[in-house]
Each structure stands twice: as structure tokens, then as C-alpha cells.
User: Fold this.
Amino acid sequence: MTGSFATGWMSRPQAPPVGTVLGPIDLIADGSGREFVFGAGLNAFRMLVVRQDTRVFGYVNLCPHYSLPLNVRADEFLSRDGARIMCRRHLAIFAIEDGMCIDGACVGSALDKVPLQIDAQGQVIIG
Ligand code: FES
Assistant:
């Protein structure tokens, strides 16, 4: 584990363990996002994954503004040009690479990062 390994997500209810396989990278269309849900009920662990070419970026699906899910429609996580993550509640904008809020209601806050890896078989794995 490195110093940059984000761990805040781990303490959330129903968080999946490190090593959980989300599935093949092709589940996420290049330039789009997809939600993955673990558990059930109001405390289900909801995370989003954004794919850019061969890279993936994972975050807990909770906006730091009001702790609401970022999306309103299924898997709708990006700005219209696909260059940023956008919260559909009050339109805050986040950098895809580090989850920092760079415009809108929560500038200076960040999404809670969920570290991801892609293995040799192209499977996206938490951790
Ligand atoms: S809840 Fe996301 S910008 Fe307000």
C-alpha cells in the first residue's frame, strides 16, 4: 500500500473488499462512465467508473456538495464534452483524473477515490 492509496471509501457501509472484480474494461464504453452498486438499501455502496482509453478512474458516487449521487439518469456522469465529471444535481464539475471539484458549488472538495487496477486479462479490479 502506498501513501497515495485512498482508503476513505473502505469505511463506507457495504464497501466491497480490495480485489473485487468489477468486470472487463469493455463494460465501460471509452469516454463514458458506469455505476457499480454493492449491497442494497439506502446504504448501498455506489461507485462510478470513468474510462478514458485504457485508463479507468473510480470514485464513490456521492457529491461532496450535499452527499447525493452525482447522476440522475443511469450512468450519466460526464459533462457534455466528456472531459469532466459533472454532478447533475447542481452541476458541479470535477476533474476525471483526481476527482477535484474545479467549478461549481464545492470547489476545493474532491470525490472519494476508489483505486482501480486493470489486470493482464483486462479485468477492472478494486485496489
Ligand atoms: S449535490 Fe452535487 S453539486 Fe450539489
